[in-house]
Specification:
The protein is mainly alpha-helical and about 80 residues long. About 50% of the residues lie in helices and about 10% in strands.
Length: about 80
Amino acid sequence: MYMTIAETAEYLSLPEATIRALVGQGKIRTVHDGEQYLIYKDQFADHMKQVEKAKKQLAEWNSEPLPEDIDIKDED
């Protein structure tokens, strides 16, 4: 499935200007149909998996209890 730059920006939750810059740098592969750039959606599958994995790891890290501080029991 192909998406326009605006649809890609919405899909990746990035500004359109960022997507245009990445297209210009060659970091996002596109097809130009004469009017607009079309971007193949499946090229972002790995990116989206990594983002979800990072979110999951962050949630796990945030849910871990803080270790008890050794200095709390120290009575000077």
